Amino acid sequence: MKKLTILTRPTGVPPVVTRKYGGHASVTRSLVEGLDKIGYSDFNYAPDDEREIAEHVHVLAGVNTLQYALGLKKSGKIKKLTAGPNIVVFSDEYDALITDEEVERYLTPSDWNKRLFLEMTPSLEGRIFSWPAGVDTEYFKPDDTGVRDNTVIVYHKCQSDQFRYKICCELRKHGFDPVVFRYGGRPQEFYRANDAALQVEKYSMEDFKEALGKACFAVVISDSESQGIALAEMWSMDVPTICFDPQYYMWEWGGHMIERDGDVSSCPYLSEKTGMRFGDLRELEGILGLLADGKTQFSPREWVLANMSDEVCAARFLELVGLSGTEGNDEGTGISI
To answer: What Cα–Cα distance (Å) separates residue 311 from each residue in 11, 29, 68, 154, 257?
Structure first.
């Protein structure tokens, strides 16, 4: 019998979508493959037979999955239950399901997200921890023979097309060539930003990675991120990010408004090694001037290798859920930012 079972759906329930990893696929992939990479074999992922479930279950994703695991715990079929981070958007959802006393530890993607959950549900105090997923640093690895030019990736996730257009104008004014990747929608789209009509095509992860291999930096337009995995993918490609970070967000959720002013971020793991942030176009203009003059120096891939690879994050996961020999404490992520 294994020591740990990782679940993203109840055992015996077929996945809604046929794919290798359930839940938030990037998070699940990182943990499962990260554990393999560090040589931790005493776990299984999504077993088909309930008899193969270990005494310790970690639910990565799904409200129904956590409800199922709580049933296992309360019936004595498992001894330990930990959960997170891809179960709820807010900790008071589903009658504050994640605060059930049977959940020994809950993981959330970043410190600002943890603080929000604690404000909503103080009963999580002492058992909620920040844990970001990692990225595959061998897949997201720059080609040593690749030549960086004046291409800049504009990764557009939120805000208006007009805002993105003004950013592209600023980039061109400083001698850069913007290429826009528009996140979201099915299919996702990418197009070269210019003053003429936009030419829209589907894009794959390979297209994105190829573009990153040519880019000198990226401008990321988002309102808030619980972690920002795409940022870490860019950093792993040794591409620094210039992030729009308004530090304000308002959600309409569950019939009420939730406002966050100050303690929220679109780039919670941004550091001086991985990039810079801006709050408006004037700040961006100043940053672009520094970049155009070569007055900045970053080392994003070095930072990812030390802080956010699959291996580093899998080892931190084992520590936090008590499977590394020493149970993790509540002193933040352990990540250097």
So the answer is: 27, 12, 29, 29, 38
